[in-house]
Amino acid sequence: MFKKIKFIAVILIFSLIQISISRSEKIECENLFSVYLETDENSVMNILVPCAEKGDHFAQLLLAEEYFFTLKDFALAYKWYQSASEAGYYYATYRLGTMYENGQHVFKNNKKAIELYHEAADGGIEEAQFQLGIIYGEKKWGFILTRDYEESLKWFKKVAEAEGELAATAAYNVYIIYSNEWAQGDTNKWLKIAADLGNEEAIKLSTKLSKQDAEDLIIEYLNNN
Questions:
Q1: Which three-class secondary structure state does DSSP give residue 85?
Q2: DSSP letter (8 states) at residue 141
Q3: What is the pTM of this model?
Q4: The predicted structure's pLDDT at residue 29
Q5: What is the reported pLDDT for 212?
Q6: What's the burial of 180, exposed, middle or buried (CB within 10 Å: 0-12/13-18/19+)?
Q7: Percent of the chain, pLDDT > 70?
Q8: How far is the C-alpha of 137 from the C-alpha of 150, rounded, in Å?
Q9: Closest CA to 133 of 165, 159, 102
Q10: Looking at residue 6, what is its pLDDT?
Q11: Which residues are CB-neighbours of 110 under 8 A, at least 6 positions away?
């Protein structure tokens, strides 16, 4: 009788431990990003892998990032980016595009890369929009894509107007396209926008032009008086 009670007690204790672990894992997955930021690099995979395997799509995205950037395991990065992308994480779709463009784990496929960039850009991903701005302004894509400065401007302007991390560079790229007369537009307006957003080249150029304008006004005044 004593052995039977002891056995039941062990089972109950084990069950309570399992419930505690299960609850802990649930909490970790529910508050994944804060846990991820607070976890050291050596332990982060212990958090991400179980959550990703349980179907947490945000965990799948973070796990893909770890495999890609930290561990350089492109096969597993691709696997988890794919899972996150299928769940509607457009940043993962963008990352898949970069893998197809650069031939990482998959065969290099620019056509597929552009399709994925468009999907991610339509989903609001700044990096994909910026990449399309670059792609449409280049001529290296051959028969896959015709250089189209108007399309390039469309995507650069979208990035600039969102005022995210790439906004200043995107605005300066708009200025470059206009200043080279690859398309018609207000050059000074976009130089000012780029400078106001903090692009260093635009700031230097604006300062130089402002000094030149001041000198021209002085010369014009002296000539007229």
A1: helix
A2: T
A3: 0.81
A4: 85
A5: 60
A6: exposed
A7: 81
A8: 9
A9: 159
A10: 40
A11: 100, 101, 141, 144, 145
